[in-house]
Amino acid sequence: MLYSDKVMDHFANPRNVGEIPDADGVGEVGNAKCGDIMKMYLKIEDGMIKDVKFKTFGCGAAIATSSIATEMIKGKPIEEALKLTNKAVIEALDGLPPAKIHCSVLAEQAIKAAFADYYTKKGIDPTPFVGTV
Ligand code: FES
Ligand code: FES
C-alpha cells in the first residue's frame, strides 16, 4: 500500500477544512511543479492558536498533510506552532512516499506564510520568526 492508514484517514476525513473570515493571519503557498495550492487561516488569541483552518486544492497527500498539520498546531502556543516541520508532519502520518514529500513541505510553508502575514499585519518584521517564506 502506497499510503499509510493515517494518510488515508486524513484524506478521506480531513480535519479543520474551511476558512476563518476574521483570521489574524492567512498564508497561501503553491508548488509550481504539480500546481497544487494550499491556504491556511490562523486565529490567534493570547499567544495561542485558537483556531486554524485550511483549504487545499491539491493531491491527497497535500490534503492529508494540511489536515494533520492543523491538528498538530491547534490550541498550541505560537512558539510551538512555529517549530512544526514537514518531518514532524510526515512522522505523524506514519510516512509518505518519496514523491509526496514536497506535499508536506507545502503544509509547513503554508503555516509559516500565515504567521508571516500575522506578524506583518501587526507591523512586526516576520523574518526572525519564520525566516523567508
Ligand atoms: Fe492530478 Fe495526477 S496530476 S491526479
Ligand atoms: Fe504536489 Fe501533492 S503532488 S502537493
Automatic annotation (TrEMBL):
UniProt GO MF annotations: iron ion binding; iron-sulfur cluster binding
Look up the coiled coil feature and give its residue ranges. none
Provide the GO biological process annotations: iron-sulfur cluster assembly
Can you give the residue ranges of the NIF system FeS cluster assembly NifU N-terminal domain? Answer: 3-122
Tell me the protein's name: Fe-S cluster assembly scaffold protein NifU
Specify the taxonomic lineage.
Bacteria, Bacillati, Bacillota, Clostridia, Eubacteriales
